[in-house]
Amino acid sequence: MTKISFSDLGKVIKKYIVILMCIPILSTGLVYTTEKILLPQEYTASTQLLITADNKSEDGQSFDDLRSSIQLIGTFSTTIQSDKVKKEVAEDLGIERIDESITVITDQNSLYFTVNVTGPNEKEAVDVANSLSKVVTKDFPELFSGMSVHVMEKASDATPKPMTFQLILGFISGLMASIILAFSILLFSSIITKESQLRDLGLTVLGDTPFKNLRKEDFKK
Known about the structure:
Elements: H1 6-15, H2 17-38, E1 43-53, E2 56-57, E3 60-61, H3 63-71, H4 73-80, H5 83-93, E4 101-106, E5 112-119, H6 122-143, E6 147-153, E7 158-160, H7 164-188, H8 195-200, H9 216-220
Antiparallel strand pairs: 1-5, 1-6, 1-7, 2-3, 4-5
Helix pairs in contact: 1-7, 2-7, 5-6
Protein backbone atom coordinates (compact mmCIF):
# COMPACT_ATOMS: atom_id res chain seq x y z
CA MET A 1 0.00 0.00 0.00
CA THR A 2 1.36 3.42 -0.94
CA LYS A 3 2.20 5.58 2.03
CA ILE A 4 1.15 9.20 1.79
CA SER A 5 3.03 11.92 3.63
CA PHE A 6 2.13 15.56 4.09
CA SER A 7 5.33 16.41 2.24
CA ASP A 8 4.18 14.49 -0.85
CA LEU A 9 0.72 16.01 -0.62
CA GLY A 10 2.24 19.47 -0.36
CA LYS A 11 4.27 18.86 -3.51
CA VAL A 12 1.16 17.81 -5.43
CA ILE A 13 -0.79 20.84 -4.22
CA LYS A 14 2.08 23.14 -5.14
CA LYS A 15 2.37 21.62 -8.61
CA TYR A 16 -1.37 21.73 -9.38
CA ILE A 17 -2.25 24.81 -7.30
CA VAL A 18 -3.93 26.65 -10.19
CA ILE A 19 -6.24 23.76 -11.06
CA LEU A 20 -7.04 23.05 -7.42
CA MET A 21 -7.94 26.71 -6.81
CA CYS A 22 -10.05 26.95 -9.95
CA ILE A 23 -12.36 24.08 -8.94
CA PRO A 24 -13.99 25.79 -5.88
CA ILE A 25 -14.14 29.10 -7.76
CA LEU A 26 -15.88 27.46 -10.71
CA SER A 27 -18.30 25.54 -8.48
CA THR A 28 -19.23 28.76 -6.65
CA GLY A 29 -19.69 30.54 -9.97
CA LEU A 30 -21.86 27.69 -11.24
CA VAL A 31 -24.12 27.93 -8.18
CA TYR A 32 -24.39 31.72 -8.58
CA THR A 33 -25.27 31.40 -12.28
CA THR A 34 -27.85 28.71 -11.58
CA GLU A 35 -29.52 30.68 -8.78
CA LYS A 36 -29.38 34.04 -10.56
CA ILE A 37 -30.13 33.14 -14.17
CA LEU A 38 -31.46 29.61 -14.64
CA LEU A 39 -33.76 29.44 -11.61
CA PRO A 40 -36.58 32.01 -11.22
CA GLN A 41 -35.75 34.73 -8.69
CA GLU A 42 -37.99 34.79 -5.62
CA TYR A 43 -38.91 37.82 -3.52
CA THR A 44 -40.19 37.94 0.04
CA ALA A 45 -42.44 40.67 1.46
CA SER A 46 -43.20 40.81 5.18
CA THR A 47 -46.00 42.30 7.24
CA GLN A 48 -46.27 42.25 11.04
CA LEU A 49 -49.49 41.66 12.97
CA LEU A 50 -50.42 41.85 16.63
CA ILE A 51 -53.40 39.91 18.03
CA THR A 52 -55.07 41.23 21.16
CA ALA A 53 -58.04 40.29 23.32
CA ASP A 54 -60.86 42.84 23.38
CA ASN A 55 -62.26 41.80 26.78
CA LYS A 56 -60.90 44.37 29.18
CA SER A 57 -61.43 45.15 32.81
CA GLU A 58 -60.86 48.49 34.45
CA ASP A 59 -57.20 47.61 34.84
CA GLY A 60 -56.84 46.72 31.17
CA GLN A 61 -56.51 43.35 29.45
CA SER A 62 -56.85 40.51 31.97
CA PHE A 63 -54.27 37.78 32.49
CA ASP A 64 -56.80 35.07 31.58
CA ASP A 65 -57.51 36.75 28.24
CA LEU A 66 -53.81 36.87 27.41
CA ARG A 67 -53.24 33.27 28.44
CA SER A 68 -56.18 32.07 26.34
CA SER A 69 -54.89 34.01 23.36
CA ILE A 70 -51.37 32.55 23.67
CA GLN A 71 -52.82 29.02 23.77
CA LEU A 72 -54.41 29.68 20.37
CA ILE A 73 -51.16 30.73 18.65
CA GLY A 74 -51.07 27.58 16.50
CA THR A 75 -54.69 28.08 15.47
CA PHE A 76 -54.06 31.72 14.55
CA SER A 77 -51.05 30.73 12.44
CA THR A 78 -52.96 27.99 10.60
CA THR A 79 -55.90 30.33 9.96
CA ILE A 80 -53.66 32.98 8.41
CA GLN A 81 -52.33 30.38 5.94
CA SER A 82 -55.73 28.77 5.27
CA ASP A 83 -57.31 28.42 1.83
CA LYS A 84 -60.25 30.56 3.00
CA VAL A 85 -57.98 33.52 3.69
CA LYS A 86 -56.05 32.98 0.43
CA LYS A 87 -59.33 32.94 -1.51
CA GLU A 88 -60.45 36.22 0.07
CA VAL A 89 -57.05 37.79 -0.70
CA ALA A 90 -57.38 36.70 -4.34
CA GLU A 91 -60.86 38.24 -4.52
CA ASP A 92 -59.57 41.44 -2.93
CA LEU A 93 -56.80 41.71 -5.52
CA GLY A 94 -59.07 40.68 -8.39
CA ILE A 95 -57.01 37.63 -9.38
CA GLU A 96 -57.94 33.97 -9.81
CA ARG A 97 -55.75 32.50 -7.06
CA ILE A 98 -52.73 33.11 -4.85
CA ASP A 99 -49.61 31.31 -6.07
CA GLU A 100 -47.28 32.94 -3.56
CA SER A 101 -46.02 30.95 -0.57
CA ILE A 102 -47.22 32.21 2.83
CA THR A 103 -45.33 31.46 6.04
CA VAL A 104 -46.02 32.70 9.57
CA ILE A 105 -43.26 33.27 12.12
CA THR A 106 -44.00 33.85 15.79
CA ASP A 107 -42.45 33.32 19.18
CA GLN A 108 -43.98 30.53 21.26
CA ASN A 109 -45.25 32.90 23.95
CA SER A 110 -45.96 35.94 21.80
CA LEU A 111 -49.01 37.21 19.94
CA TYR A 112 -46.79 39.16 17.55
CA PHE A 113 -46.79 37.54 14.09
CA THR A 114 -44.54 38.10 11.09
CA VAL A 115 -46.17 36.98 7.85
CA ASN A 116 -43.82 36.35 4.92
CA VAL A 117 -45.14 36.17 1.36
CA THR A 118 -42.72 34.72 -1.20
CA GLY A 119 -43.22 34.77 -4.96
CA PRO A 120 -41.51 35.42 -8.32
CA ASN A 121 -42.91 38.94 -8.70
CA GLU A 122 -41.75 41.68 -6.33
CA LYS A 123 -44.84 43.91 -6.59
CA GLU A 124 -47.29 41.00 -6.32
CA ALA A 125 -45.59 39.73 -3.17
CA VAL A 126 -46.04 43.16 -1.53
CA ASP A 127 -49.67 43.42 -2.69
CA VAL A 128 -50.52 39.94 -1.38
CA ALA A 129 -48.87 40.64 2.00
CA ASN A 130 -50.81 43.88 2.52
CA SER A 131 -54.09 42.41 1.28
CA LEU A 132 -53.64 39.41 3.58
CA SER A 133 -53.17 41.67 6.60
CA LYS A 134 -56.36 43.54 5.65
CA VAL A 135 -58.36 40.32 5.25
CA VAL A 136 -57.08 38.88 8.53
CA THR A 137 -57.89 42.12 10.36
CA LYS A 138 -61.48 41.87 9.10
CA ASP A 139 -62.00 38.11 9.57
CA PHE A 140 -60.40 37.42 12.94
CA PRO A 141 -63.00 39.21 15.11
CA GLU A 142 -65.66 37.11 13.39
CA LEU A 143 -63.79 33.82 13.68
CA PHE A 144 -62.45 34.38 17.20
CA SER A 145 -64.82 36.16 19.51
CA GLY A 146 -63.16 38.92 21.51
CA MET A 147 -59.99 38.98 19.38
CA SER A 148 -58.64 41.81 17.26
CA VAL A 149 -55.76 42.02 14.80
CA HIS A 150 -53.67 45.17 14.46
CA VAL A 151 -51.30 45.77 11.55
CA MET A 152 -48.06 46.89 13.17
CA GLU A 153 -46.06 47.20 9.97
CA LYS A 154 -47.19 47.01 6.36
CA ALA A 155 -45.12 45.45 3.59
CA SER A 156 -43.36 48.24 1.71
CA ASP A 157 -40.94 46.28 -0.45
CA ALA A 158 -39.85 42.73 -1.22
CA THR A 159 -36.30 41.47 -0.84
CA PRO A 160 -34.73 38.82 -3.09
CA LYS A 161 -34.01 35.41 -1.63
CA PRO A 162 -30.44 35.40 -0.21
CA MET A 163 -27.93 33.05 -1.86
CA THR A 164 -25.34 33.04 0.92
CA PHE A 165 -25.98 29.47 2.03
CA GLN A 166 -25.98 28.11 -1.53
CA LEU A 167 -22.73 29.93 -2.38
CA ILE A 168 -20.98 28.65 0.76
CA LEU A 169 -22.19 25.12 0.01
CA GLY A 170 -20.93 25.41 -3.58
CA PHE A 171 -17.51 26.63 -2.43
CA ILE A 172 -17.17 23.85 0.16
CA SER A 173 -18.18 21.24 -2.43
CA GLY A 174 -15.55 22.56 -4.84
CA LEU A 175 -12.93 22.59 -2.07
CA MET A 176 -13.68 18.96 -1.22
CA ALA A 177 -13.42 18.05 -4.90
CA SER A 178 -9.98 19.72 -5.04
CA ILE A 179 -8.79 17.74 -2.01
CA ILE A 180 -10.06 14.47 -3.50
CA LEU A 181 -8.32 15.31 -6.79
CA ALA A 182 -5.01 16.02 -5.00
CA PHE A 183 -5.17 12.66 -3.17
CA SER A 184 -6.11 10.87 -6.41
CA ILE A 185 -3.13 12.36 -8.24
CA LEU A 186 -0.86 11.30 -5.40
CA LEU A 187 -2.26 7.75 -5.15
CA PHE A 188 -2.39 6.95 -8.85
CA SER A 189 0.79 8.69 -9.93
CA SER A 190 3.09 6.30 -11.86
CA ILE A 191 6.21 8.39 -11.27
CA ILE A 192 8.64 6.98 -8.68
CA THR A 193 10.33 9.70 -6.67
CA LYS A 194 11.63 7.88 -3.59
CA GLU A 195 13.54 4.69 -2.78
CA SER A 196 10.79 3.60 -0.42
CA GLN A 197 8.41 3.32 -3.39
CA LEU A 198 10.75 0.79 -5.03
CA ARG A 199 10.99 -1.21 -1.82
CA ASP A 200 7.19 -1.26 -1.58
CA LEU A 201 7.22 -2.93 -5.02
CA GLY A 202 9.58 -5.63 -3.71
CA LEU A 203 12.63 -4.31 -5.54
CA THR A 204 16.13 -3.98 -4.11
CA VAL A 205 17.84 -0.61 -4.35
CA LEU A 206 21.55 -0.94 -5.16
CA GLY A 207 22.28 2.76 -5.57
CA ASP A 208 21.37 5.86 -7.53
CA THR A 209 22.81 7.66 -10.51
CA PRO A 210 22.66 11.42 -10.94
CA PHE A 211 20.57 12.58 -13.87
CA LYS A 212 22.44 14.08 -16.79
CA ASN A 213 21.22 15.55 -20.05
CA LEU A 214 23.01 13.73 -22.86
CA ARG A 215 24.20 15.43 -26.01
CA LYS A 216 25.05 14.01 -29.45
CA GLU A 217 28.76 14.48 -28.73
CA ASP A 218 28.53 12.10 -25.77
CA PHE A 219 27.52 9.22 -28.08
CA LYS A 220 30.47 9.82 -30.47
CA LYS A 221 33.11 9.28 -27.82
